[in-house]
Request: fold
Amino acid sequence: MPDTQALVMTFLTSLKNATARQTAELLRSVISQQRVPYTNQAGALIDAVKAVGEQLIAANPVELAVGNIVRRVLHIIREEDLSLTTAAIGELNLSAVSDDENDDDRDGNTTLSAAAVAAAARSTLRPPSLQTLLEDTPVSAAVPQTSSSGGDSEGKTADKSSRSRKLKHDVIEAVNELIQDIVTCHEQIAEQAVEHIHQNEVILTLGSSRTVSEFLFAAKEKKRSFRVFVAEGAPRYQGHLLAKELVARGLQTTLITDSAVFAMISRVNMVIVGAHAVMANGGVIAPVGMNLVALAAQKHAVPFVVLAGSHKLCPLYPHNPEVLLNELRSPSELLDFGEFSDCMDFGSGSGSPLLHVVNPAFDYVPPKLVSLFITDAGGHNPSYMYRLIADYYSADDLVVQRRAIAGN
Amino acid sequence: MDSRRSSRAVIDPKVRQVGFFTSAPLPPDRTQSDPPDPIRSPPLADASSPGNSLSPVMIPPPRHPSDSLLRLPHSPSDAFPPPSPTTTTTSLGDFSDDVTAASSPPPAAARVRGRGSSVKQQGAASSFPGGGFEVPPSVKAPSSVPASGLTTVSVVKLPPGISVEVQSDRALNSKPLKEKTSKAERRAIQEAQRAAKAAAKAEGIKTPAVTALANAKSAKSTKPSPQRNDSAVVVAASEKKGGDRSVEKDRKKDVPHPRMQYDDKSRVQKLKKRSVVKPTEARNRVELFRHLPQYEHGTQLPVLQSKFFQLDTLHPAVYKVGLQYLSGDICGGNARCIAMLQAFQEAIRDYSTPPAKTLSRDLTAKISSYVSFLIDCRPLSVSMGNAIRFLKSQIAKIPISLSESEAKATLHSDIERFINEKIILADRVIVKHAVTKIRDGDVLLTYGSSSAVEMILQHAHELGKQFRVVIVDSRPKHEGKLLLRRLVRKGLSCTYTHINAISYIMHEVTRVFLGASSVLSNGTVYSRVGTACVAMVAYGFHIPVLVCCEAYKFHERVQLDSICSNELGDPDSISKVPGREDINHLDGWDKSENLQLLNLIYDATPSDYVSLIITDYGMIPPTSVPVIVREYGRGQLWIYEECDPLASPGRCSDAVFFVDGLIFYPSQHLVLSFWFPDRPPSGLNNDLLERSDNFVTVAENGNFTNFEL
Reply:
C-alpha cells in the first residue's frame, strides 16, 4: 500500500504536533485503502492497523494519545466485527427457525457459531479478567473460524462481499464517530463546567490547554463570574496564551510566575488543569510543573481537577513515568547558548562537561494528588480510571507494540 | 566541658548534629586530667568533676578574674559529696543529652543540654524540697555570675540558640545552707525563689542581668558581693538603673509596629506628601495585594535622576544606593544591607550637627529621612530593617558628653562592626557549620542565588569534597544563571534547570540548601519566591532542607502566608520573556483591564518543610528561631562591644573559654561564635586575651599561649 505508507511517513515527520484526531484520520484512510480478503476480514484490518500503529507508536512512545487511538481503532474493528457476526447469526437463527426443522447441518452450524460468538463476545466486551486471559488463545482462534464457518454455511459469494464491505463501512463509520468524539470532547467536558465552578470562585491553572480554556469559557458563558490565576508554565509559557484568551473573553485573569504557585494557592478554591495523558492507575502525565501545583494544592487542601478527553485515557500502567514517559527538550529554552558558550566547554580532564541543563517536558502526578477527573464521560475518581479505560479498549490490544515488534 | 561534649558524641551522635556544628571532639578525659585550678572557675567545674564525678553540670564561669578570686572561699565546697538525685537540670530541646551516662551519678542528677556549655540548671532544685540544696558544690562554685553567692537567673546564650536558664542559688545551696538552715527557712527561701523565677519568666528573660539583680536582692545575699554593674550594661545602657518597669516597657516597645498598609487611604496620602519619589500607581492592581504598594515600575528612575539637584537633603551616597536598589543593580539581603550601611557611614562622616540641635536627635531624623527615601526606591528587606534599628539605637545611646567627631567615629566603627560581625563573620561561621553537612557524592540542590549558599558550595569545593550542584532557577530574575556561571568558573559540576522541573530533578538530590531573606519567629522562612515550592517538593521526597541565614535577619514578626506581607516587582517583566521573542502573546494586552500581572518577590516557607536552619549561632531547628530572636534580638551588640576581641582586644580579659571554635563570654552570658580554622584551641579553660588575624593569645594558668589561626 504505497499510498498509506506515504501518508504514514508524512505523519511521522509531523508527529511533533500529532493529535489524536490526526491519528484517527490517518487510520481511517489506512482502513479505507486496505483491501479486505474474503475470509478473516477483521483479522486483516487489525493486522493492517497494527502495522501502522506500531510505526506510529515507535516513532514517539511518549505521545501516548497516538497509541491510545490505535488501540481504540483496533477495539472498534473487533467490536464491529463482533456485532456483524452476532447480527449474521441472529439472521441465521431466524432462518433456521423458519426452515425445516430436520436440517442437521444447519443446526450444528448455528450452535457452533453461536458458541464462537459467545466466546468472541467475552473476549471483546468483557473487561480484562482472569477468565478472559485463560480463554484468550481459543478465542482468537475462534474469531476467524466464525467468519469462515458462517461464510461456508451461507455459501454465497455475493453475500460475503457485501458483508466485507459492510464491515469496512461500519468500521469507517465508527472511526468517524471516534473522530467526532475527539473533536467534540472539549464541548462535552465544558458542559460540565457549571456543575463545578461557582460564583466568585478563584481558579488556578498552569500552562495552556484547550480543554481548560473551553471549560472556563463555558462557565463564563453561564454568567458565572470568577477569577483565574494562570501560572505561565515555563519554559513554554503557554500560560501567556491562555491568559490572553481568557482576558479576551472578559475573565478576570492574573498571570503569575510558576514559582509563585505556592504563595498563591492558599487563596485558590480549585485547581483545574489539562493533561497530556491519564494512565490506567489514575496517574497523570502532564506538562512540567504540574506535580508542583498538585503538591501545593494538596498541602492547602485545594481540589485538583484534571480535565481529559477520553482519547487521553491510556490503558497502560506507568512505571517510572518521570523518566520513561518523559522527554528532554532543548536546553536553549533555558539557557542562551551564546551567553554560556564559554562555560559549556569547561569540561574537566575526564571530558565530561561541568554544565548540564535539564529541561524535561512532562511531569507525573501520582493519583493520590488528583481529586477528580472530568472526562467527556463525566467525573471520576482516580481509582476508577482503570475501569473507565477498560470500556474503551480491548484487552488484546494493550500489548500492541510488543506483538508488532515480535512480528518484525 | 570537653568531657561532656565527647560523651554527647558517643551517646547520641545523631541528635548532636542538630544544634551544633560538628568538630573533632577533644579527648574525653582531658578535663579530668587537668589540674584543678581553684582560681579559675571553668577549671573549677571541671576539676571538681573527677572528685564527685559530676562533670556534666555546666555553669558559666566567672565573669571576671576578680570574681573568681572572690569565689576562692568557696573552693572548699569542692569537697562536697556528690549531688543528691533530686538535683535536676531540666533539659529543653532535642539537643538535651543525658550526659550523666558518662559520669557516675544517677541520670536524674544532671542533664546537660547542648554541648555542655548550655545548661539549664534549675536552681539547685529549689523547687524540690529536701534534696534541692545538696547540689554538688562543684556545680555551684564556678557558677557564677555577678555576685557570687546570689540567687541569679541568668541566661546563657548558646550557639544553638537555646536559651538556658541557669538558676543557681549558690548562696542558699552551698555553704550557708549546709551550715544548717531550718526546714522552714528553706521552705521560705524556696518560695521566694519560685516567686522570683515566676517574675523573671513573666518579664521575659530578655534582660537577664536585671532580673538577676532583682533576684539577688530578693534572696538576701549573705555575702558582700562585688556587684559588677556591667552585667546590666550588657542589657542596655539605658536600662542600667532600670527596674522591672523599664524592662516591661521595652518589651512592649518590642512588639513590631504594624506594617504600612497601602489600602489605608489616609496613610497613603500622608506618605505621598512626604515622599520624594512620586511613583505612579499601577493601573491593574492585583486585588489580593491592595495592601502592598503597587506602582508602575520604570518610571521612577528617570524622575529621580532629574531630581538629583533638588534633593539637597539627601546625601549623594544614599541617593546612589537608592538608585541602585531601584534599578536592581544591588539585590540580595546582605548586599543591600551592606550597601545601605556603607552609605550611612559616608553620610555620617559628612554630617555636622546644625547649631542648636543635638546630634543624636538630628542624626536620627536624618537617617529616618534617608530610610524613607530608600523605602520609596524599594521596600526595605528585613535585614535592612534590623540594621537600621541597630543604627538608631546606637545613635540614641551616644552620650551627650561625647564630642561630635568622637560620636561620629563611634558610629562609624559601630556600623563597621555590624557589617563585619553580623554579616561577614556570620557568613563565615555559617559556611563552617554547613560544610560539615556536605559529604562526598552528595547532590546539592539550591534555588536562586544566595550568597551564603554560594560561599558554602565554594568552600566545600575548596576542601576537595566531591559533590554535584543542582541550580534551580525561575523567572523573571533568573538569578541562578549568575550563580551557575560563577560556580562553573570555579570548576564545580553543575546541573541547571527551572523550577517546574523540580519534581524531575529532585530524585537525584540528597540535600537542599536554601538562602533566606528572613526567618520569622514562627519558623517561617521568608525568601525568594519559589523557595517554598522547592522546600515542599524536597519535603515530599524526604530530602533534608537546610536554610542558611545569618541571625541578624531573624525577625520577631510572624507570618503564615505569602500574601499578608510581600513585595511586588515589576509586572512588565512577567509578560516579557527575554530571549524568547516567540513568546509575545501578551504584547498589547497588558493594558487590558481584566489582566493583572503579578510579580511576587518573596514567599513564606512553612517551618514544616525546613529541617534545619544554619545560623551564625549554630544549627537550629525552626522551632528554635524565637529563642534566637528573643535572646539575641536586642542589646546583642552591646555584648560584642564589651568583649569582642576583634573590636577591643584589650577588654577581653573577661573569662573566656572555648569549645571548638566557639568563644564563650560567660560573664556576658553569651557565646560569640568564632571560627577557628581546623583547630579548635584545646585549652578549654583559657582566657582569650587577644585575637589578631594570625593568632589568638590565650592565658592558660597564668601562661600566655598563642594559638595560630
